[in-house]
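Exercise 3.2. Students should predict the tertiary structure of the chain below and write it as structure tokens, then compare their answer with the key that follows.

Predict this chain's 3D structure.
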Amino acid sequence: MSISGSKDHAARVAALREKFTKTFGHHPEGIWRAPGRVNLIGEHTDYNMGYVLPFAIDKNALVAIRRKSQLEPESQSLDFASTYGGGETLAVTSITVDELVPRAVPGWAAYPAAVVWALNQVQGVELSGFELLVDSDVPVGSGLSSSHAMEVGTIVALNDLYALGLSHTQMALLTQRAENEFVGAPTGIMDQSASLMSQAQHALFLDCRSMDAQNVPLPLAQEDAVILVMDTRVEHSHVDGGYAARRRSCEQACEVLGVDALRDVARVDDLVAIDDPVIRRRAKHIVTENQRVLDTVKVLNEADLAAVGQLLYQSHVSMRDDYEISSEELDAAVEAAMGAGAIGARMTGGGFGGSAIALIKRDQVQSVSQAVLTAFEQAGYVQPNIFTVVADEGAGRA
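Answer key:
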């Protein structure tokens, strides 16, 4: 069953509606849901026009919105509030539509503000003021795309309220523009697409050049298997320099090879023209990772989870050694999970912190979790947050 049909979800929606009314003095016009995502495989391939295989998870951002009428005072003001941090009285960040310029909005409010800015760049679209309250249970900084869940929740709400008629692909591209140009994070297209286009019990096989998408069955329940998330609680940020540096390395590799994107490089042997060993290693990860995505789709269709597990671990080794975006904590989580009998494991997300995932049998949840907890305790790391996730539906009305 999708999370949107659960009693816990219904309780969250009711609580958010009540909180909105208390904060703004009006009822919301509606509440929308946008999930976070786990990337099963295909890391840093999206901005290289390659292939990715994420899925939406049963943790999501809920976004409640009410449009202001032109007769209201400050009708052009955007009022943003969040339940993050709790408390009876929520802080409200206000900014007028005319004041929306890149880097102008501090903190988390930059994400919904960026969506408004991007939509107002679309010919024929002119959004006015509204009130917005967000409640999210996607762990922040965990590599599960908490920021994109907030952006997607905002854009699907505005698309519905203003009857904009945008497709999933258009909304994905607009939220990418919001993230790149307004927030200042050079991210690709994967996270938004997963949040928008996923189906329950499926992974989303996405070609990031053509935007062709295909939902591939995840035969976890049939094989009595689950995905275990191991959040290292080492927060990462796409705005920081490591992500941008990797992207620049890929651009430099393309310049040397004379290709538009590393997607166009078919074999590792083709990288010998790159003299710089670091750039060559970065490019090697992208070339091999694209092939691993294609291979994973094939073995998923054959319900061969053992082969999937091998590909997941190969992906982690590539990110650790070639792309160099792992961390001591991520490596410890992966190795502890594998040592405890996981079918496969890898870091997931942009790297430099965040989460790792393990593909395990359902009866291994306790033993693998304990192995990871013990490894972290022995190494003196902060205790990780460990939980299972379900492949859930993409964004829509809550």
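Discussion points: The two ends are 15 Å apart (CA to CA). Residues 277-301 form the longest helix (25 residues).
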